[in-house]
Amino acid sequence: MKNGKFLTMAIESSCDETSVALLIEGREVLSNVISSQIKVHQVFGGVVPEIASRHHLDNINQVTDQALAEAGVTWDEVDLIGVTYGPGLVGALLIGLASAKAFAFAKNIPLVGVHHIQGHISANYIEHPDLEPPFMALVVSGGHTNIVEVKDYNTFEVLGGTRDDAAGEAFDKVARVLGLGYPGGPLIDKVAKEGNPQAIPFKRVFLEKGSFDFSFSGIKTGVLNYLNSEKQAGREVVVADVAASFQQAVMDVIVAKAVTAALAMKKDKLVLAGGVAANSKLREMLHEQCEKNGIQLYCPSPILCTDNAAMIGCAAYYKYKAGFVSDLTLDAFPNLSLSAR
Ligand code: KG4
Ligand code: ZN
């Protein structure tokens, strides 16, 4: 307890960010230290799982100490430890998990395993203190693209997901073929501002009528084919136009499906989450469509969109309050489903 208030520590290590956070009463962030490995993986054009695990191991203790120091709290005040146990890179998850279990055991603190996507959604509770379920959530990240009906803090129904690439993955792959660098999402977002989104009519893939699933591998191939045909014809490619047209095509589908899902399930709140939620075009389009359809849109600030431990701590708090506790046999699940918990 910190001044009589419940204190949660959380650890996130599912991909390439080692993060530890401390929160009061689940929603008030005292510290949220994020050690990013982006520079390490940049030379490879993507995250190398084994290298990620090693860096988590190098960083975790220091990040934990820093999080405690920045929050101005001691171990004795920590009431709960939350940790991401899936989905993610198994070696990376295991480092955070082993640390959380060791801390919980040594300090005799309850432990709660958190689904990474529940964490992303929970970032919105931190950002918007008045937000409460039920609502519709759009989760768009490097590993996931899901439309989720959030029935209460711990009950979810996944209405749709990607059948191949996640949205962020498609952004990263297209950025690579355009020679923009890694991670590609923010770079495409930036370059696209200078381009014409109507320049190239990339196909919008909506799948079967009424489906809330996604498919982004086709548009990725579409960009590759376009670049090859332009090269063969000896024409110069306008990178900004390709980036803007690709981004528009992806967002046309995502926005349409998310708003349709909210209306279909009679939800007047739509919550945006995940790394791609930082995308300026997505935010602009969602604002417009939500306003038109009487839906209130909730977005986290950019630092809470990408991977961070504060969002995991918030989710852990609500799981614990609902009676969920993990024991020290808690394992990492790289493909953990949101309904499994
Ligand atoms: O949520 P996150 O940090 O990690 C996963 O759980 O996957 O998301 C990272 C993803 C990357 O694919 C990155 O390119 C994408 O989010 N991203 C963006 C933007 N900022 C980050 N995609 C589009 N536009 C952005 N501004
Ligand atoms: Zn994530």
TrEMBL record:
Q: Which GO terms describe its molecular function?
A: iron ion binding; tRNA N(6)-L-threonylcarbamoyladenine synthase activity
One GO biological process term: tRNA threonylcarbamoyladenosine modification
Q: Which reaction does it catalyse?
A: L-threonylcarbamoyladenylate + adenosine(37) in tRNA = N(6)-L-threonylcarbamoyladenosine(37) in tRNA + AMP + H(+)
Can you quote the record's cofactor note?
Binds 1 Fe(2+) ion per subunit.
Q: Which cofactor does it need?
A: Fe(2+)
As for subcellular location, the record says: Cytoplasm
Domain (Gcp-like): give its ranges: 28-313
**UniProt binding sites for Fe cation:** 116, 120, 307
What is the main EC category here? Answer: transferase
Summarize where substrate binds, as residue positions: 139-143, 172, 185, 189, 279
Supply the CDD domains for this chain. Answer: ASKHA_NBD_TsaD_bac
**One GO location term (cellular component):** cytoplasm
Q: Which Gene3D superfamilies match?
A: 3.30.420.40
Q: What is its EC number?
A: 2.3.1.234
Q: Which UniProt keywords apply?
A: Acyltransferase, Cytoplasm, Iron, Metal-binding, Transferase, tRNA processing
- Family note: Belongs to the KAE1 / TsaD family.
PANTHER family per UniProt: TRNA N6-ADENOSINE THREONYLCARBAMOYLTRANSFERASE, TRNA N6-ADENOSINE THREONYLCARBAMOYLTRANSFERASE, MITOCHONDRIAL
Extract the NCBIfam families matched here.
gcp_kae1, T6A_TsaD_YgjD
Give the protein's function. Answer: Required for the formation of a threonylcarbamoyl group on adenosine at position 37 (t(6)A37) in tRNAs that read codons beginning with adenine. Is involved in the transfer of the threonylcarbamoyl moiety of threonylcarbamoyl-AMP (TC-AMP) to the N6 group of A37, together with TsaE and TsaB. TsaD likely plays a direct catalytic role in this reaction.
From the Swiss-Prot or TrEMBL record, give the protein name: tRNA N6-adenosine threonylcarbamoyltransferase
